[in-house]
Amino acid sequence: MVNRKELHPESSPQAAYGALLRTSREEHGWKQEDLAARMEYSSTHISAVETGRKCPTSRFAHSADRALGTGDLFQRECHKIKHGALLEGFAEYVGYEGRAVEIRLYEIGIVPGLLQTPEYAQMLADSAVRRGATTPEQAAERSMSLTSRQSSLKRLRPPMVWVVMDESCIRRTVGGAAVMSGQLDHLLEFASLPNTVLQVAPFEMGERRPVNLPVTLLTLPDRSALCYAESQTQGHLDRELSSVLPVLTAYHQLQAEALSQAASVAMINQLRKGIP
What we know:
This protein is of the alpha/beta class and about 280 residues long.
């Protein structure tokens, strides 16, 4: 079949949902247009859900079950996406992240997920399980998702990645000296790559810091820009240019105020050697 996109259901719950929808549709011998007519959605919408670019809604899931005769299968899977290990909205973001040509990150308190070592990430996951904030199964799902996301940075044509980390990210000890030593080494390796820029926003920036919450900005192949941010319970993906541009401007201001990559690497090296 021409232009048939390969699916990767293991990459996220949203991708698994899309693969299940495609399989169910093809078992009926239907094209996307056929299913779209029965569900009262556009074929473009069906395609976006199948390829993980759009998150299914409860209404969409109910319509899919009715059209495909699957009982409440798609409604149950939709509920898992919205109430599973990953924040609502995050699965949709991951679909865009894997296609982005530019990624801009700002993080406070912890090393950004894309830059975490397995040991560092495991310590955070184990802590969440001990607190009862998540189950072991959910922690494992998050780990799989993180591994898949990190692998996208190593694809044939990797994205350009800019990272600004608040100084608290490298000074907050996670997992003890050995884990932090490995994590700092990994940050130094990341900074040496040809497609990355790593900067530290030092404490001394004070009130000059223009961004006070973690944020991610994506540039897609068509040069459209997206902004993703999280609360404690939900992720929000913003595609409106009027909303994204002010955040992009603030990010550029943040980069201008942050330490240069050379100075940031020097600071990380000092910490790596135990120098305060």
